[in-house]
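User: Hi! Is it possible to get a structure for several chains at once, not just one? Here's what I have:
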Amino acid sequence: EIVLTQSPGTLSLSPGERATLSCRASQSVSSSSLAWYQQKPGQAPRLLIYGASSRATGIPDRFSGSGSGTDFTLTISRLEPEDFALYYCQHYGTSRFTFGPGTKVDIK
Amino acid sequence: EVQLVESGGVLVQPGGSLRLSCEASGFDLKSYSMNWVRQAPGKGLEWVSYISSTITGSNIYYADSVKGRFTISRDNVNDSLYLQMNSLRAEDTAVYYCARSRPTAYFDCWGQGTLVTVSS
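Assistant: Yes, the chains can be modeled jointly so their relative placement is included. Here is the combined structure:
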């Protein structure tokens, strides 16, 4: 069973700064099955990135995903006020889906 | 507009049963795989169950934590997804989301969630 680890647990940054979030898998996974989601308090998650690097419909280009094998990264190039939220990575394996524990991006 | 609307979440006693519903609109439900994902208060996301599209077959999967207690099903005529939950435990307390999944297995559309509380 693949386990996803996200780091850091909390990232404290200011608007306009660059955010780099990490997702590490316990074993090598296919890039096509790695996704990222954003969740704000009281809201459902929203798909940001699929296939490790493809932006979902309507997602601004300040969000980008990269990585392969066991190490994946979500980058927010310049933080906007609405980007302060929780971020989860997710993987699909054999007959199961796995989420990472999340990274909270909060205002410094 | 693609939309998913969950219902059925209530306060239930440990050992009790509950059925959640998810009504889909704006897309052809039978062409998509569907899921239930839950989130305990203040915790992260946990996938619960998957049912494949009617077109691709009848594959159903469950997380180990609910296997044998929960049953996922779909009614393509009424554009609805269901989750029958039996032998409920306190640790099943969570917001339950239905979510549409794509062939490469990411969740591209989510409902707003329905809260299930298991407590005496």
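The beta strands of chain A are 4-7, 10-13, 19-29, 34-39, 46-50, 54-55, 63-76, 86-93, 96-99, 103-107. Chain A has a mean pLDDT of 96.

User: Great, thank you!
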